Amino acid sequence: MNFFGNGVNVLLKKVTSLLLAIALVPMAAFSAASASAPVAPKAVQTAVKVEYNKKQIAFPDQAPIISQGRTLVPIRPIAESLGFEVQWNEATRTVTINKGKDNIRLVVTQKIAKKNGQTINLDVPAQIVNKRTVVPVRFIAEALSYKVEWDPKTQTVLIADNVNPNQVGQQEKPKDPTKPATDEKKPEQVAFIDKESVKGKTFSLANLGVYQIVGKVEPGTEVTVTLEDKTYEVEVTAEGTFEFYQSTNDGIRSYTLKAEKDGKKDTFEGDFQKTN
């Protein structure tokens, strides 16, 4: 009895070891398969291109990506290609874009942007990829007021100048080549500058030219002076008088004075009088 009982015990131990070995095989195979399975990235690098008025925009260090089914583009190359100023605040992680009188702000990871204080909702939030801020293409259309289209055949984002909605139906009619040029509407003439009061003087100082312009304009106008290819803002007093000084290249003989107010302009072309 003891011999038979010992044999049964030995047999049971072998069967148990075999079953345990078989049970471990699929678990090990599952673990190996899980370890080798790749994790799908959240943002996919693609061969997306961006064009502005049919001219391709270069992205030197970060190409456009696709995230959550949306195309995102680096905002700085886009904005600078369109001629806007872009600023980055690391402390608040805020991008600021100045477009003429418009101010646009957006914060990384937030799904909203602000344009002149008004909220713009975004499909996906702005993100930091490779140390560059990327934004959804829709942001360019809604915040920067451009026409944006997608060409699936060439994988290209097409950005184009948009028509100002305030001008729809008010575009100028094509000019009639049969009519003389005198029929064209002439700009309204205004007289903001007191031409008799404007005087320009210049003298040389160590290879530099020192220039002075004084005069009087209508109070409340904005005045600028252009010397060769450079334009300078001029401060005007409450009475309308101004005095301009500037040292720059020697040999400038003439200047252009402009005064603007309420969307109207007055221009004066003057010559400098040489003094000792």
From TrEMBL:
Give the signal peptide, or none: 1-35
Q: List the keywords (alphabetical).
A: Signal
Entry annotated with the keyword Signal:
yes
For the keyword Acyltransferase, the answer is: no
Q: What is this protein called?
A: Copper amine oxidase
Q: Where is the composition biased (Basic and acidic residues)?
A: 172-187
- Location of the region described as Disordered in the Swiss-Prot/TrEMBL record: 162-187
Q: Where is the Copper amine oxidase-like N-terminal domain?
A: 53-159
